[in-house]
Model the fold of this input.
Amino acid sequence: MDSCDAPGLMPVDTAIEKMLSVVKPISKTNRLPLAETLGLVLAEDVISPINVPPFANSAMDGYALQRADLDKTDTLTLAGQSFAGTPFDGTCQSGQCIRIMTGAELPAGTDTVIMQEETEAIGDQIRFLVKPKAGDNVRPIGDDIKLGEVVVAKGHRLSARELPLIASLGIASLPVFERPKVAFFSTGDELRPLGEPLAAGQIYDSNRYGIRALLDKFGCEVLDLGIIPDDPAQLDAAFAKATSTADMLITSGGVSVGEADYTKDILTQQGEVGFWKIAMKPGKPFAFGKVNECWFCGLPGNPVSAMLTLYEIVQPVLAQLAGQSQYQAPQRLPAIASTVFKKRPGRTDFQRGIYQVNSKGQIEVATTGNQGSGAFSSMHQANCLVILEQERGKVQPGETVTIEPFNASMY
Done:
């Protein structure tokens, strides 16, 4: 066990549990037009004010009739028609049938629809070739949604799957929680903005672009404070600005043990440190704390480490901060390793992998190769994470591992 696998590091699951135990949802809400609520979190249950459908209607193009009539004859007289939006005006009498289109209101006096392919028409005489059970091809009142039913629960983040559902109820606006305000910056004298030439020992600041992309996907309101040098005064000012305006501050870099890493000192002076360092690879130097009413998450400086700690550890916390009581963590599945996965016991490894379904219908996963915390090309190549347990060692082909296919945040 090397220095990176030293005992006493907090397990990943414990770290997440500790954060979730103290972070409370934002309480501020707004009522917005339905079209403006995509990606926001419901502050109240959506309760249906109507039945959907509001009337019994046909599931087929065909003929509406009283099923009992077919016990006496197989031929009925056509008495009218019912189209979507233009229902039959009247009552269908015994011995009659009504031409009906899909979605049209079921005429009074009818209880069954027979599709047109199962009939023969000779003038206004319609012969029925089948005798179905009563109620066939009829969608009853409230078949989809019933009056008073909870359609979407409080705490659900609204997507393209919910908006048309809510629109079908005639609901024009919704109460939603405000988006979490998240400030973020990168720290380090070695960092340079894009487009500028690099001097000796310098690198481009790529982390902010990954952090911004994920925060946008998480549904946050973001405040990008740029690059802050390793200077206590400038870091102190950045902390003050962020913690006075944001619900959470996320930094990248400055949370390890270097002599020029001042973030922990500032956090200790201005607020409180919840924990420092976790048993995760990559991502050990992850910090959590609070300054005034602003939560703090310090991500490692290496690009893969920053991305994975934000995705794995901060994502569920931001979901809770946003009021997502219906949040679902990325799905995990068993898979068969098709390549070797190198690992030493001591930390939970989040390795980048490529999974596929083989000819036997089994999920197989291969490594992307270089698993270094600075090798960001591995994130581009991957479609999942291979999660290797804290005390597990090297994995051989054929062994079963746990994979976590990337959720929508990564696409």
Q: What stands out?
A: The chain is about 20% helix and 30% strand. The CA atoms of residues 252 and 400 lie 34 Å apart.
